[in-house]
């Protein structure tokens, strides 16, 4: 097995990532990956023992970059904690409006492997979601929010639920609506502990005032031109 730093292996993985995300793992053959990578199938199997191994590597390669992207969106969003959480959803809504957006690669791959619960790719996908949940929980706990674990799980459910609904309806405003719900839940959790600071209180009031306008704008976008 070649080292992970091998440029040929990286090229194979880049080709697989492009095809698997765009078309799904079932629809893409090893031959198609080898062709896009500009190698022979024999070379591919030198670097990856099987297609299952390649699928697992595809998800593993998405793990840290995706987590870092969520953290960057959080850090770049102005306002208090509720705004920053909602900012993740709003950035995802922007991404979902791109014509090449195909939803969450972890969820889609897991759905295609639903009859293979022991598949390594499913374990990688589950671990990725747990890492995101743990990151949220740690942030909420640092804010002194009681029930940080439950709140983090609610955020994950809103996020993954909106992934599914947006993919079904092709309407990114569902992601924004989920972000509004996340904002309200986090703000309520802060209020329950009596720790809503002035920035969060002001940003919450502004979000409440903006919400009807966002919903009207979303409705306008969803109407036929």
TrEMBL record:
Residues 195-225 are annotated as: Disordered. Gene3D superfamilies: Tetracycline Repressor, domain 2. Residues 212-225 have a biased composition (Basic residues). It comes from the Bacteria. Residues 29-48 bind DNA. GO terms for molecular function: DNA-binding transcription factor activity; transcription cis-regulatory region binding. Residues 6-66 form the HTH tetR-type domain. Keywords: DNA-binding. This is TetR family transcriptional regulator.
